[in-house]
Amino acid sequence: MPSAAERTRTLVQSTCSAVLLVPGLDSLRPDQLMPDARTVDTDGDVLLAFAADSPVVRAATHAQADELAAVLEVTDVAPVSVPHRIRGRAWVSGWLTRLPHGAEPGRTTLRLEVGEAFVDDLWGAGPVEPDEFAAAVPDPLSEHEAELLQHLHSAHSAEVGMLRSLLGERSGGTAAVPVGVDRFGLRVRFTGVNCFDARFDFPQPVRDVGELRRAMHALFDAASR
């Protein structure tokens, strides 16, 4: 399974919604706290792009001589229609500073130096140390996960439903919806009288979409026997 650091890094570098929580800016609308873009540099610091005139940028500018504490909260929502769509959240806390360059016109880049992080998702909950976060690598499928799940749900719902045959005595549910895919396997939510998730692991981790297709065909073949 992916480590807590890998899951946190994946969420931070994904397209999931995120807000930057800064003391003193609690009264702002959520959209005013959402970075326009975010990435992680080679040192493991989170770089956040905001409009140059945003309240967050002003706060970071005024606090240049001091350490401004902030928390980046990322919320992961399943890209398919399913009960209980929130798959997890990650929090990255640290100190915010303004970079003198590194953004397009009209934008300012802020650096969040990571002090600690925490993830709570479908895998479980756990803390993440800054060095673990810096060394972690995002899941190779995360960039395409939304379209992959939507394609599986719309074009291969029958095959996904057949996977219940691999569950043995736990089989059940009136509908099967793919709610997560990563290099280790596929997660399916079975709904009905009882709602539960089941993981279907690949024989070995996949490295790209091509290997994922082969792994999915192997799963479907196993379910059809």
From TrEMBL:
SUPFAM superfamilies: FMN-binding split barrel. Pfam families: DUF2470 (PF10615). Residues 146-218 form the DUF2470 domain. InterPro entries: DUF2470, Haem_oxidase_HugZ-like_sf. It comes from the Bacteria. This is DUF2470 domain-containing protein. It comes from Streptomyces niveus (Streptomyces spheroides).
